[in-house]
Design brief:
mainly alpha; Glycerol uptake facilitator protein
Length: 238
């Protein structure tokens, strides 16, 4: 398996499990309906851990354009590989979103709320103030990248195979602590590609895909990830 396919499959599983838990919680007549934020954050944490386990041995398990760009910026990943990784991540995220749509086919007609259908695929801010939403995504992804570098710098965690699980715990903590304002995208592919799937798929009564907000979970994570990585290296070295 090459790195392109590894990133594609890893990101596909990330979205299948991550958007899948959101669908389970918000769509009508799901057995997990209304089970709450704790279930969503836990599901996303396990989704990230599984995605990194799937792809990590082959590609490093970035599964996130913000991570790929940040690692390239601090010299830990070749810039020549960046386009291939980003293409795999966005394509994988789109395919994962399509799989979620298929898995919950019976529930789309039962769910009248257009907002709930959109939030399965993409992040939606609790209070829509774009500059503050951008700040939240920046802070969350800064913490994500800083934490990831700290985890992988610990040779015990990488040699034991626990690093992906610890990254999952980091996602869990970030979701619980910083996810409330925006839904903690922290990943441009996680938001953009499923949002595109929402726009293209024949989901009954789905409404608009809110492209006016779509730039926030792209710009915030990219800048936050870059500065998080640079700050970590400045403080602790490579």
């Amino acid at each position: 398996m090459n790195s392109f396919l590894a990133e594609l499959v890893g990101t596909m599983f990330l979205i299948l499990l991550g958007d899948g838990v959101v669908a389970a919680v918000v769509l009508k007549k799901s057995k997990a309906e209304n089970s709450g934020w704790m279930v969503i954050t836990t599901g996303w944490a396990m989704a990230v851990a599984m995605a990194v386990y799937i792809a990590g041995r082959i590609s490093g398990g970035h599964v996130n354009p913000a991570v790929t760009l940040a690692l390239a910026a601090i010299g830990k990943f070749p810039w020549s590989e960046v386009p291939k990784y980003l293409a795999a991540q966005f394509l994988g995220a789109f395919l994962g979103a399509v799989m979620v749509w298929l898995a919950y086919l019976a529930h789309w007609p039962e769910t009248e709320d257009q907002g709930k259908k959109l939030v399965v695929f993409s992040t939606v801010p609790a209070i829509r103030k774009l500059h503050l939403n951008l700040l939240t995504e920046f802070i969350a992804t800064f913490a994500l990248m800083f934490g990831v570098l700290a985890i992988v710098a610990n040779t015990a965690s990488t040699q034991s195979g626990l690093a992906p699980l610890l990254i999952g715990f980091l996602i869990w903590a970030l979701g619980l602590s910083l996810g409330g304002p925006t839904g903690f995208a922290m990943n441009p592919a996680r938001d953009f590609a499923p949002r595109l799937a929402h726009a293209l798929l024949p989901i009954p009564g789905k409404g608009a895909s809110d492209w006016g907000y779509a730039w926030v979970p792209i710009v915030g994570p990219v800048i936050g990830g870059l500065l998080g990585a640079v700050t970590y290296v400045r403080i602790f070295g490579s």
